[in-house]
Write a structure and sequence with these properties.
Layout: E1 4-5, H1 16-28, H2 38-58, E2 65-68, H3 71-86, E3 90-93, H4 99-112, E4 115-118, H5 129-137, E5 143-146, H6 160-169, E6 173-176, E7 196-200, E8 211-215, H7 230-233, H8 241-256, H9 258-279, E9 284-285, E10 299-304, H10 311-317, E11 320-321, E12 326-329, E13 332-335, H11 337-342, E14 352-357, H12 364-389
Parallel strand pairs: 1-11, 3-4, 3-5, 5-6, 6-7
Antiparallel strand pairs: 2-8, 7-8, 9-10, 10-14, 12-13
Bound molecules: pyridoxal-5'-phosphate.
Amino acid sequence: MDRIYLDNAATTPIAPEVIDAMVESLTYSYGNPSSTHSFGQEVREKVELVRRNIASKLHVKPGEIVFTSCGTESNNLAIRGSVEHLGVKRIITSPLEHKCVEECTRAMKKIHGVELVYIKPDSLGNISSESLREALAESREKTLVSIMHANNEIGNLIDLKEFALICKEYDAYFHTDTVQTIGHLDLNFEEIPVDFASCSAHKFHGPKGIGFAFIRKNLGLKSIICGGPQERNLRAGTENVSGIVGLGKAFDLAYQDLDSTKEFIKEIKKYCIESLQVEFPDIQFNGESGNMDKSLYTVLSVLLPFYDPMIGFKLDMKGIAISQGSACSSGAASMSGVMMRIIPEHLVGKSTPLRVSFSSMTRKEDIDKFIACLVAIKNELKLNNFQLNN
Ligand code: PLP
């Protein structure tokens, strides 16, 4: 059976060029970049070249890029680091953040007694700049704002520059989880004054287990891992050199063709929206995800006009991989916190959320097959209900 992968917000297939670069690095570049001999120094050069390329694309200084193991670690470094080393006593965040931000901010409350303030999103999952202002105006305690750039479940985007400028106005630190946007959107951190951002290579055809944090220079942040002075004292531990090389290759590839890839994927998303509307006229799209201008082009969050909690499993059996935006146990899915907030109460139990996410490797034929499978599942469901009731 030919399988179709429509879960690119969870992770993307690794690009062949990335594999080649990593194999070469694993084979020949085995020196420790902290060693002073030639084996080490050759590898150090490679690591620093990747750092410089990334920094130049994001318009930051190389010393502001800190290699980490993933997006989760990068977010933890920014949040935990600013509480433990920058005197943050208050965190303003949203209830729609990724688990790693949600759990880390909660841990800061539990461990360090930090005050947590949640900005209430509107019914489409948007966070307004006015509500950020209001939350910032409430207290003069040293504050960190942590709000994601693009939501990984519904694709809603915030106006990063506006949020960053508001934080500056109130002298608050601004951390944004950019795991779903770095590698997909052009970001210039010289113009957008965020203090901390995060990246994960596996979201744009790079390897898993490698990412970076952008940490604005001279803030005084320190490593949250005890150990050596690697990464300018911001991340102890020997660097994952082949991962860094793979991240660097994936990053170069992503930004080399960013505009054309974006247009290609947008076209796929538009095609998916329109084709779904033809087959399911009552379909809805969660949050802003059906709005091409207000959402990330790689993510489409769908609300099917029939209820089938086993749909993820059934699609998988037909060779289609999607996400239900849910925590899954024993095949059936329970709704995620984000979906619980976004889906109108009267539709819970009557409709089924699905997240479809695209990459440059997605084809229109994949969308056709996915929708044909949805139609088949709906018809099977109808037949089962008819047999049950007769
Ligand atoms: N933040 C967001 C918005 C994500 O989508 C993810 C991954 O799903 C993460 C953070 C965590 O990234 P990683 O898998 O690299 O730890």
